[in-house]
Each structure stands twice: as structure tokens, then as C-alpha cells.
């Protein structure tokens, strides 16, 4: 890899993004009119009437375009999209059922992934919404019951693990900085758009401190496109996922924060990442994997506003930190860390825009790396050595332009160093563009 060429390309792209952002300083923001929150408006008054009757709709369209400026087999262009329609029924308004509601959500994903198209070899891809098949899925289907004045919240039905546990901002397109990482790195936990039968409980011990637990069905059949609209339960349940989380939401020096720590225990039988059933290196022996009777892991996240131009202002600098420790015996990645700084309202004339920069490290399981090194040390004649994987390091910067209350677009520049944790792979430089419309 020509390091000078990579640095030069990245510097030019960064300069272009920064100059483009600076030209927005003088551009006036839209009027802060709540009626503009949805692009389709109030539907001639019908939306307000439905809300008053206890029925709300959310219709959202995501698109993510990406192209590789460097890395991969050749320059490619990829476009992925996600459309969702959801409805929340206030059962108290509709039927007098105090504290109860019901939510249903359908999600369609389609398009292409740049990681696959250009063979970028990224562990955590450049397009966060690509994956889980080009298909429509039932993403949420659950009853919610609030008790004890709202301190206790229960949910029962079809839930996505990442919607309830380890939730994290998703201002970036690059996946290590976007949303809950449990469903990205734990093979039996599924984020949106895939849902599983589950039960969830959360109790607020105080206005700023809560604890949550859940139990989720583990069934890999939910990943099949054919099960996207299955309201029942396909064959193939192999265990249960038991996540937990504690959260603290303080106001420090007048600035809001959110601190979470949690983890999970999973009961299904899973393959060891490198050992065979006899305790040998299965990369060498080719024998069936050793089965582990469970797995567990931990996560931690911090979102803390650091500055504000005035008390109570949402404008200012926010720090975002995510750390995750998957199971060392069963997970391909045994540690992930991401750190980002996001400035809300970088210009007085653009109070709803965002600008951010972040860095992440995705560390390949040390047991797997040791197995790869052992394989290479005793390499049979004529066989190709394996890459001994280490860490994939990702860097990203973006500017989110809020064009309307219901519409924003985000150009983003990404650098992925040692894709797949291998120094043999050329660094990837990716330009990406996200557009989100709330209808």
C-alpha cells in the first residue's frame, strides 16, 4: 500500500467535506414548525384525528449510498435502502386499558452492500442498514404495559434485541458507530429488522436510574427470507438469550448524560471459534468444532454532553463511547471499542445540523489468531498460509445537513485500516451518503 497516496486522497476528501460544511454557516435554518415533522403532513387533518383516537403512524425511508475511493478489487457503487411503516395503538384511549399500548412495525430492506460488491473485507461494513436480506420483515409486534405510575414497563411479543439493550446513537453510517452492537457481533442476537419472541421488563429505581432484563428466543430460522412475515414461530429454536442492562441518566453541570452497563447469557450450544471436538486446532484438523454449552459477554456505553452555549441548549459537543466484550470462546471478534465526538448545531444559523468524528477498534479473537499462526507454523506443502488477524481500525467523519424537520442528508468519509484485521489488505477509503425521510 502506498501510504503517501492514501494520506493524500484522504486529506483532499476531508478538505472537501470541511469546506462544504463551512458554506452552510450562512444558510438559514428552516422554521421550527412542529407540523413539518413529517413530510406528508397532517393528511388533511386525518393524522391528528387518528392520534386523538389513539392511533399513531411512523413512516421512514433510509437510503445509504457508498463508493470506495481506495481498497477492494475495483471501484464500485452501492445503494442500500430501508423503508419502514409502524403503528402504535394507545389501548387506554381506544379501550380504556390503563397504561397499555400495542406496536407493530414492518421493515423492507433492499439494495447492495459495498463491502460485498468491491470485496473490501471489512468486519464492520460501511453501510449500517445493509444486511438480513432483501425482504420485508415483521420487526416489532408487541404489547406494552406500564405499571406503578410508569416506573415499571413490561413488553411481550416480537422484539429486536438492539431496540432494548445496548441502544446507542446512529449518526454515523459506519457500523461500529451505529446503534447496539450486540446484534452485530453476537451470532444469536438479532437487531432490527429481525425480531424474536421475547419478554422484557424495565424498572425505574429513580428518575435517573433504571434496570432492565429480558428473555429472547434464539432461533436462526428467523434469518431466512422466507420467515420475514411469519407471525408464528418456525422450527429451529436452540436456546434462550438473557440480556440485562443498568442505566444512569444524570445531569452533570447542567448537561445531560446517559451511562449504560450490561451483558448477556446465552444457553444454546455453539461452535468454539478454533478448537475441534478433540481439543485440537480445527483449522489444521478439519474435524467438527467443539461445542460450547453457553456464551456470555458485556457492554458499556457513555453519551455525555460536554458543552452548551446556554443552559438547557441541545447545541454543543457530545462524547460517545461504546465498549463491548463478546465471548472469547465463540465470537470471531472478542473486543470492540468506539469513541466519537459529535457537535450538535455547529453554526448558530444551523442549530439542527450535526458534525462528528470517530475512531473504532475491532479486535479479532486472540484464540482465532493463535490458531491461524499455529496453522501457518505447520503448513503442508503447497498450501497457502492464512492471514493472522489482529485489529481492524476504523475512522469516520460526517456532516449531517437537516434540510427540513422531516429530511436530512449526511455525507461521510471513512477510512478502514487493515480490513479484517489483516495488514495484507489495502486500507479502504469510502465516501458514503445517507438520506433519511420521515413521512
From TrEMBL:
Any one Gene Ontology molecular-function term assigned to this protein's record: porin activity
GO biological process: carbohydrate transport
Signal peptide (from-to): 1-31
GO CC entries: membrane
Pfam family, one: OprB
Domain of life, per lineage: Bacteria
Record's keyword annotation contains Oxidoreductase: no
Keyword field: Signal
Keyword Signal attributed: yes
Record family assignment: Belongs to the OprB family.
PANTHER family, A to Z: PORIN B (PTHR37944)
Listed name of the protein: Carbohydrate porin
